[in-house]
Amino acid sequence: MTDVLPPGRYFTDGNFASTEGAILAGCRFFAGYPITPSSEILERMSKRLPEIGGHFIEMEDEIGSMAAIVGASNAGMKSMTATSGPGFSLMQENIGLGMITETPTIVLDEMRAGPSTGIPTRVGQGDVMQTRWGSHGDLAPITYSPNSVQESFDLTITAFNAAETYRQPVIIASDQVIGHLSETLEVKSEDEYEIVQRQTRKVRNGSEDVYNYSDDFVPMFVSGTGFRGNVDSLTHDEKGYPSNEAYVEKKMLEHLLNKVRKNEDKIVKYEEFYLDESDIVVVAYGITSRAAKYAVKIARKEGIKAGMFRPITLWPFPEKRITQLSQRTKTFIVPEINYGQYSHSVREVGQIETKEIHFTPGAVPDYKVILDQIRRSVS
Amino acid sequence: MKLGIRMYGMGGQGIMTLAKLVGEAAVEDGKFVIMTEEYSPYITGGWSKAELVISDESIDYPLLEGLDYLVTLSQEGLDTALDQLGPRSHVITEKSLVSVPDTLKSRSVEIPGVEISKSLKNPKGANIVLMGVFSSVTKTFSMESGRRAITKRFPKYVDANIGCFERGYEEGVKYGR
Predict the structure, then answer these.
(1) What is the pTM of this model?
(2) Of the residues A192, A216, A232, the one at which a domain ends
């Protein structure tokens, strides 16, 4: 087999697609700890990476996995891990490490029923807020939410590009159903994909700063190539040296947040469906959006003015668009496989009637429940 | 065309392989296919179930809305589906392992896949016999695409499996649907 998946049409599952998307994006280091339902990613990486000059490590746990991918990225490799809820919880501290050290890497969290070990083989969407607020301190995370096998491939590439561009860990919040369902995957030839390559700095004699807080895009240096730099989890100045000073914290932190906030228009992605003159807008993501879209199609056939908005980036929150939509629609309906998470942000930003639908983790949402809520909202 | 299909068997009978081959062949023919899987927690001997939606158009909702075809290699597969089988549902079974109630006989294709695969010296190929039956009965994919999917999946055992597939196809044709 060549380094990347040959172009063509495949009938395959989300885990396969995520793995191959990562490899096409340039991932050559994977560290992980097996956990259902994401284990097939780790399994395939263990086979594929050694074949193509990459590295695979099965770690002792998810804390180590996250540390390893942050380390590998600082050593110049595009790196990734994949996990599910319990492992994602363990990774939080080192996700923060990746954030403060401005280290590009990818964490794929395949959500399953929780809390704790919950139901390993069944779907949930209970980690959505954890992808936003899971690691302590102020963060501006970027989280993608694929809703198909095709997007498991395409968005993994997008996520790697965002990680390299904004120099931070990027999260892919997939779910058990998307990971395990099989459907068509169309793969183009390698040169048709836009891949952001790692920008690195030439070796100098030591005085150049590691960071630059007045510039959103600062090329990394590669450890072990002669650049004398300091990478620290403590609040640090532009040389990378730890500091106890509030003014250094302010400068560093505002840089970390602003490099994402200022570029939200470039980062935020969404899909819209039937939003012309819709009184009711269903806001749904991941596998739930598939049920929602089907429900909206049926509602439209019944003459109900319903539409769907699907955030592809859960975070940054698509604030501008939700604000615009709230000015011309009456009701948001937010179905999720949890007891109300993303709905809070939709309500906070939209400031209009926002109805929640809580699907209990463990099954694909029933589209009829969403359809019923749409019908009730009209009458 | 939009069909809801369930394939059911016990661990080791090759139900997932059968479902994936059907999906691959249908995709090859330009169909849209979505497949979900479910297993009992046992590695072998427990049930395994694949559900497919095959459609001419892209598929939003991944679950079955009705059961058009049930393919089962175990009695449990039929028994657990009885209340979901409607007047237009059809059943394809392994004859030696599943007994079909009289009320369902007219909508059933009972195939001695185990016996046929043994006679073709491919004793593990009962699932592939049923794949052939499925192809000719449902017309969801062509014989050629079926052959290609098998060739891709079993490069070392192409002939033995294509033999089972073609024989199954002929058996399905006999039912004249």
Answers:
(1) 0.95
(2) A192
